[in-house]
Amino acid sequence: MARLMILGAGGMGTALAVAFANMGHDVTLWGHRPDQNELLRQKRENERLLKGIQIPEAVEIVDTVDAAAQADVIVIATPSAAMRETLCRIKGIVKPGVPIACTSKGFEVATLLPLHEISAQELPNNPFVALTGPSHAEELSRGIPTVLLAASESHQAAEAVQNLALNSHIRIYTGTDVIGAEMGGALKNVIAFAAGISDGMGGGDNTKAALMTRGLTEISRLGVAMGASMDTFGGISGVGDLIVTCCSVHSRNRRCGYFVGEGLTVSQAVEKVGMTVEGITATLCAYQLAQQKGVEMPITKQIYRLIKGEITAEKALEELLGRPLKREHAN
Questions:
Q1: Of these residues, 188, 208, 301, 308, which one is catalytic?
Q2: Is 43 part of the annotated catalytic residue set?
Q3: Spatial contact of 127 and 156, defined as CB atoms under 8 Å apart
Q4: pLDDT in tens, 295-330
């Protein structure tokens, strides 16, 4: 049994708290809003995000991060925009050497840094583990079989996270390509947003398959330019996460795109989803990174222009289809 401190009481944080507590671990769950924490304590249910899923009484729901001092593993499950702030909360509290397992997917907007670099800046004595893969909280919390990747430069830290889920509905593989795992997890949200737009416009399976396939090409291009291994994008954190996020009814990025495809503005669609849509900020960051690295990302570029209000969804599709013809693997 391990002592886990989960930071972030949203859908994923709650789902992991439920799953790990049911495995017999000692779980403490922290949320940044005391009023919401109190509701979780009273109802033992995250009614807004995981309705019908009971939070075991063994999960301690807290308003402070003091329990980080006793944790064997810290799990970060906040939106990527809150990554640095969350790490700073436990600085000086968490013991050196304790793994920081992060399920957040995205970049820091101000610096364009991937999350492992933020962790290295704020907690240099704690090994970072990207815990990622096709894992919607709605299914994870219900005991539906799920496969994840724990990617870390520290094999010991990756194995510590892997061993948390032994003999359960969660199977965790380990890997060393942290930037590849992070890029796959962040950029698939861009393509899922595009896939949702296509669905909302009435596009078919042919269209979505094309977006996903060419989208994976874009993801791997930028990932390799950032130092990732191409092999990573054919695995759990690459094509695996891309499939589930582009196709699932649980995907908020796809759902947000769907509303845009139906005719809502991006801001109206985000408001209608009512949750963080990481694909929006991921698009803005990915476009800037592609410009810096000289990487061609035509789908990302059109989504960027749409978010900025420069073009309509119809115009974006027209420009993608009207690009100069070329060999599939030429560029």
A1: 188
A2: no
A3: yes
A4: 999 999 999 999 999 999 999 999 999 999 989 886
